[in-house]
């Protein structure tokens, strides 16, 4: 199922996306979310550094560089959807 269809069906509290995906890249998904669901936070993760698409990058609620650090990932989730308390280890 395509990510855009999933968004319409499931109405998530947060979108976490990689920039490189086979059908719809993360840039397109970020722009789509901003247009259709402006209050839906989108967290981008990538092995590439930011700076190539500043007009779209600014729409993201956050950015995590790969490889992902689980502690930082949980922290970002807690920041973006505060009613979800990530379990600590």
Short description:
By secondary structure, this protein is an alpha/beta fold. It has a single domain (3-80), classed as Rossmann fold, CATH 3.40.50.
Description:
With about 90 residues, the chain is α/β, with parallel strands linked by helices. It has a single domain (about 5-80), classed as Rossmann fold. It contains 4 helices and 3 strands, in the order αβαβαβα. The longest helix is centred in the middle third of the chain and has 11 residues, at about 25-35. The model has no long low-confidence stretch (mean pLDDT about 85).
Strands, helices and their partners?
Blueprint: H1 3-10, E1 15-18, H2 26-36, E2 42-46, H3 54-57, E3 62-65, H4 70-80
Parallel strand pairs: 1-2, 2-3
Q: Give the strand line-up of the largest sheet.
A: 1-2-3
Gross CATH architecture: 3-Layer(aba) Sandwich
Instruction: Spell the H/E element sequence.
Output: HEHEHEH
Largest sheet: 3 strands, parallel
CATH topology: Rossmann fold
Overall mean pLDDT? 86
* Global structural class: alpha/beta
Assess the beta-strand content as a share of residues: 5-15%
């Amino acid at each position: 199922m395509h990510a855009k269809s999933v968004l319409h069906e499931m109405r998530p509290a947060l979108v976490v996306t990689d920039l490189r995906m086979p059908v719809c890249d993360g840039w397109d998904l970020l722009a789509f979310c901003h247009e259709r669901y402006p209050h839906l936070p989108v967290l981008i993760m990538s092995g590439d550094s930011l700076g190539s698409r500043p007009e779209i990058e600014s729409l993201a609620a956050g950015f995590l560089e790969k490889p992902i650090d689980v502690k930082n990932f949980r922290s970002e989730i807690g920041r973006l959807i505060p009613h979800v308390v990530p379990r600590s280890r």
